[in-house]
Structures are given as C-alpha cells and as structure tokens.
Queue: 2 jobs
Job 1
Amino acid sequence: MTKVKPSIKADRFEESVIREMTRLANQYKAINLAQGFPDFSAPDFLKEYAKEFIDRDYNQYAITWGTRTIRHALSKKYKEFYNLDYDPEKEITVCCGSTECMISTMLGIVNPGDEVIVIEPFYENYGPDAIISDAKPVYLQLTGPDFLITREKLDKVFNKKTKAIIINSPHNPTGKVFSESELNLIADYCKKYDVIAITDEIYEHIVYKGKHIPIASLDGMKDRTVTISGVSKTFSVTGWRVGYILAPENITKGIRKIHDFLTVGAPAPLQEACAKAISESNEYYSKLKNFYKERKDFFYNALKHIGFKCIEPHGAYYIMCKFDNFGFDDDIKFTEYLIKEIGVAVVPGSSFFSDGNPEKSKYIRFCFCKKMETLENAIRRLRKLNS
Ligand SMILES: Cc1ncc(COP(=O)(O)O)c(C=O)c1O
C-alpha cells in the first residue's frame, strides 16, 4: 500500500454534503429532496435537438470556448433580455456547467492571498472554490428572514485586499432575489474598492416575486462583472454540463486559458442543441416560472401547515426552514432522522454556513424541483412528524 496521502489542499475541504445526502437517500429509499435536480423529463424540443446533432455527427471537440452558435445565441439573448452587449467572439466562454465556470473564473482572476467575499449562507461550492484558487474567503453574514445587504455589513468585509465578491441571485439556499437597491449598494463598494463582481445567475428564469436584475446591467458594472449562468436549471438538464460566462475581454482572456486546460470544452452536440433552444425560448421561460410557482405555493404552504418555520422563496427552487419545534436543535441529527425514520432526504443547513456562524445548525433545506406527486408523497411522510 502506498503511503501517499491526499494533497494538503484536498484535505482542507470535505466531500459535498449535498451529494452525500443523495447517497443516503438511495441507501434508505428516502424521497430525495436534497440535491437540486428534477425528477421529471427535460423538454421534448431540447431532447430532439440533441438527437439531431448527434445524428449529424457533431462528435468532436468544439471550439474550446464554445461553439459559435451558442456564443452568438447568448449574445443575442443578453441583448434582448437585459440590454447587455457581449461580443460573442471575445467576451463569452462556455464551460462544463456553471460549476466549472466558477472555478475557471476564480483561477483566472485570483492571486494567492487575495480576499474574496462570499455572501453567507452560500451555495456549498464557493468555499472549496476559494481554497482551490488560494483565495482567502471573507464571509458576509446575512441573517434571516430577510437576508438584507446593508452598508454596515459591506463596510465590515470590503478592504484594499478584496479582489472579488461572489453574488448568487436568485439565491440558493434562501430563495432570495436581491433587490436593485441592494445590488446598487454592492456595486458602489465594488467601484470604490476596484473589486470584481462574480455573479452566479443560474436561477435567472425562476423568479416568483420581484425581478431578476443582473448586476452587470447596473451603472459602471459591466466592465467589472463576471456573469455566470447555464442550462442545468432552466432546461432541467443538470447532467448535460453546459454553463457559460459573460465577462469583459481582459478578464475573459485569463478565464479562457484556465478553462481550456481544465476541461477543453463542454459536450459539442449538447452545446449545439442548447444554442437552438436559447435562440427560441422566450415563451418557454414564462411557462417554467409558472410551473415552479405552482410547486412553490403547494410545498411552502404544506410545510408551514406541518409546523416548519419556512422562509418563502422569491426565486430558485429551495425552501429553508427552521425545525426547533420538532424537538431537535441540531440540523445534522434532524436530517438523519428525516432520512431514516420519515423517509425524506433534505440538506442540513450547516453546509451553507461557515464555522462559527450562530445560524449554522438552525436550518434544513428542501428542494422542490420535483413532480407534484413526489412532493405530495413527501408531505404525506412528513406529516408523521406530528403523530
Ligand atoms: C447556485 C448554484 N450555482 C451552481 C450550481 C451548479 O450548476 P451547474 O449544474 O451548471 O454546474 C447550482 C446547483 O445546484 C447552484 O445551486
């Protein structure tokens, strides 16, 4: 047996809790409301496009920063939707999901020791992303139920060493959609301290209340913003691994180099299929919003009725809840109980908070990107908590 150990860097973070919950859900045959992937079919039109491009033998490497078709489709979409001009040749990069977009961006802009502000609670990848890229994560702690960004909070985290701030709106896990005034406040600090905004907008089309505003569209921000999004959530194809980055040319140059040597490129026929879907999906986006609103309304009300203290999401497809009235005060223990005894898998809230945050063990997160019948079955099981 070799004595070689994992690297010091790999030892500095744990395996994904969310994906571990999926493993446990399978082991205990629990309904999986942990990991954010749909249990229903992807849109037929998108599947037909994928078949078409595989049949037409789009089997070889695409251009490393994305097929011409998808970059041009994205450029047109960002102009139409957000009035943002991105040059498809120099400012758009396609990666293997927004997960790779984020790590390529971090490796493309951060130097060892640079501070990167992470808004907390946070999507669990951002912590390891900071470690992998040798950044120093600085947590901007928001508190429920409003998770409001204030000048006071920004004053505490911005300084001369700050290189970037990671924003995620609509937000996983809280469902918050950051308001224009909050984004303007962040923008003011980014301009004052010459900081890059890295914004994960993967849930841009899943908004129930308020409006999704890309921070890049605010005054003076386009030149200092890296916008990340992708098809995983919008088209219910988390396994296709197609995400994209829109950023000014000087920033894109570094990101593209990192992306090229990390993965070469995202799947070529799927990029072609997504390009076609992105070009013609205006009607689809509003249907998607209604589809998830129906699930959100049903699931949020049913959880509240059972006794969970839920934060009503304004976007994305998660519900964060407090659970102290069920006789538990620790999210990990409660999650284990839910999986093993109740038959519903969720994510313990601690995976969205840094150590030492007083909110760390108080929440669990449900995801509701599921068939109505899956959600109804989960509610039936969760009612056992009251018996
Ligand atoms: C905020 C956020 N960003 C990124 C991702 C991953 O996206 P992708 O499948 O494009 O890598 C997720 C998945 O749950 C997410 O919630």
Job 2
Amino acid sequence: MSPERLSIPSYAMALAHVASLRSEDPYRKVGAAALDHDNRVIGTAYNGLAPGFNPPPGFWDDRDKRQKFMLHAEVNLCSLFRRGEARTVACTTMPCTACMQMLCAYGIREIYYRDVYHTSDAPEIAALYGVKLVRITDFPAVDRESPDSQVEG
Ligand SMILES: [Zn+2]
C-alpha cells in the first residue's frame, strides 16, 4: 500500500468531519459516516433537528433546554441503513451511551471517534460486545482558512 494512501479509518473520519460542518448546532457539531462490508460509503449524517422542523426564534440560545430535541449524528446515520448492512462507523465525537447501544444493535463492528466524551459508557459497552472502538486524530480535515494548502502538483 502506498504510504500516501489514506487508511479506511482516516477516510471515514474525514467524511464524518465534513458532515459535521453541516450541523446547525452552535455548540457541538458532530458528524458521522458509515461504510459497508466492502468499505463503500453508505452515507453521512450530523446532529440536528428532525427533518423539516424549523426552530422558533431563540431556540439555539439555551443549550440545556434544546439538548433533548437534538437528534444525534449516529441516530440520523442509522436511519440510512438496515441492521447488518454497515460494518464501520466514524464519529467526530465518541458515541454517547445511548448511541453506542444503538450502534451495537445495528451490528456495527468498528467504530472510530476523534473527540473523547468522558461521560460516555461507550468503551465499556464496546469491550463487552467485542466491538472495536478506536480514537482517530490523524485525518485530512478541511482547512477553511487556506483552501489552497492541500493542493499538490
Ligand atoms: Zn448520542
């Protein structure tokens, strides 16, 4: 394998990162990507409100009050496939306990995350069910300050 070639985990995380850029949550933008058993992309998702819902003015001002309404990126991601179809998921933040449970129910075997989420029980759940849960920080992120910096040759 060429040393310049992007690994599958880094590839998935780059996709998750790009998806997170679409989140309208001003405090925590989370993205996720799912790959199938041949490492083909099933889809990407990000945290947000239910499809078609237009929040009233001031909705985003109070983080605690709106938190329960936010659909996590993993929830939106799992709406894109059936159980057993996806093998690998990348999330920009470690899945919360509920999302980790859901990913296990969907038969996900490998989960990569970038940011640690300390209150999540994901590591314990992954260990019990034999799911690979690995932190990935090495991936090509979109650099909005200097869009030409990635251009080679
Ligand atoms: Zn979650």
